[in-house]
Design a protein that fits this description.
With 290 residues, this protein is mainly alpha-helical. The protein folds into 4 domains: 2-50, no CATH class; 59-118; 127-180, no CATH class; 186-284, DNA Binding (I), subunit A. 39% of the residues lie in helices and 3% in strands. It is built from 12 helices and 2 strands. It has helices spanning 2-5, 23-30, 33-44, 59-73, 91-98, 101-111, 127-141, 159-166, 169-180, 186-189, 225-234, 278-284, and strands spanning 254-258, 273-277. A two-stranded antiparallel ribbon has the order 1-2. The chain is elongated, with a radius of gyration of 30 Å. The N and C termini lie far apart (88 Å).
Length: 290
């Protein structure tokens, strides 16, 4: 083509009889027509000034590609399916041109007279739901999850859901930390030390084990989910008794429990809570050191 035309060919010229191959194989092989031109120019020593302006994928091209993908699948494609070799363009191209994936689907449905009832439902996942899911994944791994790990079966929601909702994975992590630290539960605000003064506490023998109703408490018994996460992070997602952690041993289940049992006057405060694995927690029972 270069020898025939004495210049770089345009996209529209890449067809028979002038060209043996259409522009499609170049896009598939090099990622885009422009990348193919850049590589050819580099090998031939052609200056960048002779390259045509970089092609911006038009809405028409994207819709045509979406129509082709839909015909291949026999249904509306999902975002994770919009990749090669099935699709010439990634879902990111649709976001740039249409603002959202749903808008692109709605437009192609309108052009092809597809009932809107056949479109996949638009999903707006609540921020709270995404943060709760991130907390669960974090606890399961025993460490901060990586972007590529946010997929099923580990995560209920894909990494794209976090990118779309928060702008980026890093922004999602920052929002998560702010969310964890925003717990206004009274037990999180409790600053009075419990365990550091255990040795100074007078232990009065009693005839029977006191119940929760016979002991005066300043805090609630239940440990909030965000407070539980705080304790797990503080303890490095590892059992304080044996050191087991889901980060190093698959299947380890961690509990957060009172050091001084609630029934014996222990409060639900950070310094009276500890991380224990399931085995150590069940073995501990209601006993504690005094």
């Amino acid at each position: 083509m270069w020898k025939k035309l004495k210049r770089l060919p345009s996209k529209d010229e890449m067809k028979k009889p002038l060209s043996q191959f259409s522009v499609g194989p170049y896009q598939k092989r090099f990622g885009s027509w422009y990348k193919a031109l850049q590589l050819f120019a580099e090998k031939q020593g052609i200056p960048d000034s002779q390259l045509p302006p970089k092609h911006v994928v038009s809405k028409e091209e994207l819709l045509e590609n979406l129509r082709t993908v839909r015909e291949k699948l026999g249904r509306q494609p999902r975002t994770h399916e919009m990749k090669k070799p099935l699709s010439l363009f990634s879902v990111g191209s649709y976001y740039k041109q249409f603002g959202s994936w749903n808008k692109a689907l709605q437009l192609i449905a309108k052009k092809q007279s597809i009932p809107l009832s056949q479109l996949p439902p638009k999903i707006n996942i609540a921020v709270e739901e995404l943060l709760e899911n991130l907390k669960t994944v974090w606890e399961t791994l025993g460490r901060q999850p990586r972007y590529k790990e946010m997929k099923k079966p580990l995560s209920l929601h894909s990494r794209d859901a976090y990118r779309k909702r928060f702008g980026s994975w890093n922004k999602a992590l920052k929002r998560f930390i702010a969310w964890v630290n925003s717990d206004n539960d009274d037990s999180m605000l409790e600053t009075e030390s419990v365990t550091k003064n255990i040795s100074d506490r007078a232990v009065t023998p009693v005839a029977e084990t006191p119940t929760a109703t016979s002991v005066s408490h300043k805090t609630k018994r239940n440990i909030s989910e965000r407070m539980r996460f705080h304790i797990l992070m503080r303890d490095g997602f590892a059992c304080r008794a044996c050191g087991k952690s889901p980060a190093t041993q698959l299947g380890v289940e961690l509990h957060v429990d009172h050091i001084i049992p609630w029934s014996k006057g222990g409060e639900t405060t950070a310094d009276n809570l500890q991380t224990l694995c399931k085995q150590c927690n069940l073995g501990k029972g209601n006993a504690f050191e005094v």
